[in-house]
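step 4 of 6: structure.
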Amino acid sequence: MNVNSHGKVAQGINWRQVIVPAIVSILFFTVLTGLLYPLTITGLAQAIFPYQANGSLLTDAEGNVVGSELIGQQFNVPAYFWGRLSATGPVPYNAAASSGSNLGPMNPALIGPEGMIQARIAALHDANAAAGVTVDGPIPVDLVTASGSGLDPHISPAAAAYQAPRIAALRGIDVERVRALVDQHTEGRVFGILGDPRVNVLRLNLALDAQYPLPAAH
Amino acid sequence: MTANGLLQIGLFLLILVVVAKPLGLYIYSVYEGRSILGRVFGPVERGLYRLFGTREDAEMNWKTYTLAVLAFSLASVILLYALQRLQGSLPLNPEHLGAVSPDSSFNTAASFVTNTNWQGYAGESTMSYLTQMLGLTVQNFVSAAVGMAVLMAFIRGFVRQTATTLGNFWVDLTRGTLYILLPMAIVVSLVIVSQGAVQNLSPYQTAQVLDEIAQGDADGASTTEQILAMGPAASQVAIKHLGTNGGGFFNANAAHPFENPTPLTDLILILAETVIATGLTYTFGKMVGDTRQGWAILTAMLIVLAVFMTGAYAAEAAGTPQLEALGADVVASDVNPGGNMEGKETRFGIARSALFATATTATSTGAVNTMHDSLTPLGGLVTLFMMQMSESVLGGVGSGLYSGMLIYAIVAVFIAGLMVGRTPEYLGKKIEAFEMKIASIIILVMPALVLGFTALAVISADGAATIYNTDPPAHGFSEVLYAFTSGANNNGSAFAGLGANTPFYNTTIGLAMLFGRFFLIVASLAIAGSLAQKKAVPASEGTLPTHTGLFIAMLIGVVIIVGALTFVPALALGPIVEHLSMIVG
């Protein structure tokens, strides 16, 4: 009823080619691409790249997980470098509920006098004042805006440089040492082309604690 | 804008041009049944056809082909709906996530089967690992394979003469999945895992954070723990890009470091979502026996893409006067990203974010590495406009041609025919009243869906209730316009400030997605069925050559003018008025 090999007109619908194949094929593809494929990839990933496949987790000397090198953490203590703003709820840097602020560029909650950006700028100025340092000039834009994921592990080198005097003052060390540490933790563009230069905030703060521990912590 | 930013855009476009031919030839060989993989797995493939109850040579007329597409998709919707409703009692659910609500399940089923991947839900807090794998990952594969299959049938309409059949849907579906999507997905998955994308079945991890007082919430409570969402992400991420699906494993999609950890994975994922659509233009040229036809189509697409991509980059790099007034340093340098960094990731910066936003809306992918709701008004306008050109600039795999650029090409030859008073032809086939009627309907359906539903949403209480970004109101309007533009064009990205996980939006966007996909598939296959029956007419002096610069310019003109004329009034109410109020300050 469908068509013969001479291409003769067959206007009818061949239901045998429709219903049963639809049911059998979706079941087949479900097993193949929904089970075999992800499980095979999981097996290969766990065998070849176990560190990455399990979240690039960082551990302390006792083996406790202290975070992931790919996932940012909230830092409020002024003696730590601060990361991007995070709009995740109910707490910032909630790695079980990634989210951006989704605020439009003209939204008062973003740019108003009570807005997110103004609050961050005030907090940075206050922290500088409390540490007895003054940093003039505009603040690098990534330090006053929220990331897309709410989990951005990086800040720009400029955002780290902006905070270096504060960190140095609070840890009682020369600012050049802090800058050197930032330089060590700065990643360039991939192949010199892709992406932007960046500093991993968690790793930088871990290195700070290791090399220049907070006076209060001892 | 920086030289590096422009270099990143240029590099991306260059890679597309380079891969078009080799990948296009491979895809051609797959559907001809002569691919390398096809030879190796031929016996398995033929066994599958026996299992399905079909044969490699059982050809279908356009009606049977169309019904096969619809039956397969219906079975998919039912299966995906059931999985979500039952996930609470099914295995592979370490976080004990409960059943998804009925309206959200319908929306998500429609969304993934239509290759849209609009997500009203947040992945890590809604979907069990089983649903993500057995439901969503499967549709990422097969909805893309359906798109490519329909394109093959559509092109056969031009190629075949006095024929009644367009191929066998089950054969096209199987070959596209087995020989194109699956091997590419395996490679991309492993590469992104090597860079840090997660791939495991573990429960969520708990980390003791460094700054112990930090995570206080509004009630003054504090926590020293960070819960890290896990899961088989990489395998799904790879195919959501390759298949121009776009639905994130995690809520933040490709902005999430566990999906897209480095600038290198970012390039790979952008390429993944564009190379198949690019290669298909060459496949098209090869199938119709004149590869210049494919190059002409690709040239038109890449010109539009390059212009709008650069425009989006310029808009985002300029930042906003408000950011500057507050005291943010928006001037880019080697150490400072500058520009509008709200909603963007540091590792990608402005250029990669603008590049991604344009590519993801030009193709019907809809994955995001930057939050579109926080784009500058003109950056947001670019993303809207890329979709409003009917996803014809690369577009979805397959659909970018069969309901996008090739339909515009038919309209372009028709308009050219009117100018010189001749019967229009395209690829040797006369374009007559029937084809033109259907092509017009295809072009009109999408704007009708978008503008109709947008109007309904802003005047109805149910729709207006969850527009949270009402200051300024133009932005709230943009969010609604974006939601339906994204749904009807099967893109799936969002201006995510809109509260879209409500019965109203789940239902209306669900309907927009289903019509936007399946109505156009039926219409395109009807054109193919009609064209296949015709004899080829030899080219005469009156035939408009469709591989020349003149035709490319004409085609771009039709795409822009048809897209622009329909949507300019709506865009004026949204991003344009927001831009004007922004620069006034």
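step 5 of 6: annotate
 - Strands of chain B lie at 60-61, 165-167, 205-208, 225-228, 328-329, 425-426, 429-430.
 - Chain B is about 65% helix and 5% strand.
step 6 of 6: archive
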